[in-house]
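Anyone opening a protein record will find just a pair of labelled lines. The record below illustrates this layout.
***
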Amino acid sequence: MKQKPNQSPWAWVPSLYFAQGLPYVIVITVSTIIYKNLGLSNADITFYTGWLYLPWVIKPFWGPFVDHLRTKRFWVVSMQLLMGVLMAAAGLSLPAPNFVRWSLIFFWLIAFSSATHDIAADGYYMLGLTPHQQSFYVGIRNTSWRIAAIAGQGGLVYLSGLLINKNVAVKKAWMFLLLGAGVVYVAIAVYHKLIMPRPDGDPEQRLSGATEGIKRYLATFIAFFKRKNILVFLLFVLFYRLGEAQLTKLAAPFLLDTKEAGGLALSNEQVGWAYGTVGMLGLVAGGILGGFAAAKHGLKFWLWPMAFAMQLPDLLYVYMAHFQPGNIFLIQGFIAIEQFGYGFGFTAYTLYLIYFVQGENRTSHYAFATGLMALGMMVPGILSGWIQEMLNYENFFIWVLVCTIPGFLLLPFLKIDKKFGKK
């Protein structure tokens, strides 16, 4: 199929970021539900799956090579094909006697491939769109990413519940679903091979030798840490999501755990339905509204409102842990509010990262930024299960709220051009 030189971003931005989100949510979130269904403790689950963040943390170390070899488009399509195969392999590993070991190996490989894909996809987004388009579509890309999260955390979990209720063994149910996810992912790769344009800003690149590669790598790495206001940026990226990093790891176990253990005793189907229906609607509405708002008034105008929208809904988990409501519609409503706030608020966070890395080497520098962001998610996530088992769910969610304070304290120190994001 012939490439269209001026292909509308609507043809590839939503699908590209859906493809970016799906492997991440399978590795980080769906894996926790799989291991919960298979009887692992919260501490073991968060420890094992928390370390799966590592590839996103260390991706800056190979980001410059992705930046200076071939094209971003080449890396996007290649990694998507590879991850489709690995998802299927992860599913086939579950019936094995040592399924924890083997599934973790494949989840690790998916994580490394996904981290590489992120570098290329984010670089392609910045190279293929103007600054105003980046602001306009940031809500679309974040929403598409989160729709992938809903497809995994909602759709796959719901389908697993249906299969398990039809007396399909837990391991077999998840094996079939991961195989299906792999097939879908390969189809997405083929679509992108055919439809993604070749922007002028993404030329074919090759290194003439190892020496040149090392020089470019070191220069790119040093240039990042010489950026203006780098200290504030590092603190913000590492601590802004401190609360979310812990809540994300324990939200699904909390919903699935028994009332005696402090949870809400929902089934896989109920959890999947809650995230896949009203949760998805809230997320889509929040993400799209956030992108439109930022494109109209700019990032600086919306920074504080979006921060509050993203963090304050954590209060709803304190309420649910204290009262343990049994009304599924109330729980769904709370999840919808939380997802709306996240979709709306995360727009500012993403735009600030894009704003900070504007200029030379922005693909590699964005990879550095998101790698640091992953570090800020990994360490608290690893410890979250241990903290929850010490505190119980109610006190844990209060602790999560306390952990949002450092992010707010850093907001006044962010230096942002009032015009950034506006048309």
